[in-house]
Batch of 2 targets.
Target 1
Amino acid sequence: MSPEPYRIDVPQAELDDLRDRLLRTRWIDAVDDDWARGASPGYLRTLTAYWARRFDWRDQEAALNRLPQFRAVVNGVGIHFIHVRGAGPHPLPIVLTHGFPDSFVRFLKIVPLLADPAAHGGDPADAFDVIVPSLPGYAFSDPLEAGATFGIGDLWHGLMTRVLGYPRFAAHGGDWGSTITEQLARSHAGSVVGIHLTDVPFWHAFRKPDDTSSAEEAFLARNEAWIRQEGAYALIQGTRPLSLAPGLADSPAGLAAWMVEKFQRWSDCGGDVESRFSRDELLTNLTIYWVTRTIGSSFQPYVDFTTSGAVRWMIEGFKQWVGSKAVPAAFALFPKDLSHPPREWAARFFDVQRWTEMPRGGHFAAMEEPGLLVEDLRAFFRPLRAAASVGAD
């Protein structure tokens, strides 16, 4: 179970094949050239031309390899993760969990800020030991069997306690990361000093209480409208993954269209995706999906939720409707994220001790507004640090 150092080294043949496929893309005839009906055809041509002719994966690979990366087998599953030791008197270990359509690269901007605050104008007493795993089936982690999404929180607990030797630790996540972080807190409350989320896990909205406030009613109505207008991707990924994945795994232009549209729609970019993400950031994320051939396995959480596993998820998730109230929780809400619940909604499921309405930013907070997110993480966990030195489950 000891972690082994890991180094990314994509075979040149993979990169040559990627370039060849990009240059041979068969483009569609499109009437519209905006983002109203999906990815902008004009922008997609520009992005894929850059991907084929100017994007330097080797530069990005070298930058990633400057971070200490490892793999370890936890409960029979090989997990890839970054592990950066904090530069401070008593670093607090924290596990950061990403979602879809991003990867561990979601957190690259905040890793140094959390690990070495003094080097970035902060207080060394706020230092964290930062652990960033790749979700199973994403990047360089092994895929899961059907239904095993429900056990990722247990994998993270094993990684943090048995592999890395942290009896107590902090946790943060967004998108699937918020759901997994909630699972982790609910099942291993004795090990988790606090959780910090950028959204209330979506599945709570599938069971409507009888005593909703007017603010909650408005939130649930907005949520239903979003599902009708924007949520088809999740239904397709969850119910017809084997119809969708082969095309995305075979065409890098198709993969870019499917994924970059999410970065444009879900971020605080005002319609201009490159106002929030550089081309190199977008393409580094895309290239990781491409060279690891993990677009299909990245759909597994959606499959587990929307098929027969949904019942199991609900039973496990609701657990007498108590959520994760045994662990202190903080929420940082970014205005252009997918949903914007009121505090009373979160308080139904969590012990909400901090609630921050951010002035800007969207779904990919760690990439869009790393400074705002880091300041909120530091502030929330500052009074909880002493708890990391006592007890664990």
Target 2
Amino acid sequence: MPPTLESLGIDKLSIEERLKLIDLIWDSLPQSFEPTEIPEWHIAELEKRRATADTEPGVGKPWQGILADLGGNA
């Protein structure tokens, strides 16, 4: 089970301390990353979304439409 904000004490940090922590974590990430396997929870989430898309067609919106709504180019 992954750690939680509470178990790490992050919930007790001030906003400024949390932002500094975000910077530290971001800077610690490698420049490139090649995942070797897809986590099981990603697969479960995709299956859930696909099932919803089949039972509720038209609920979602293609990313191109979202980008266009935000004023970007697709």
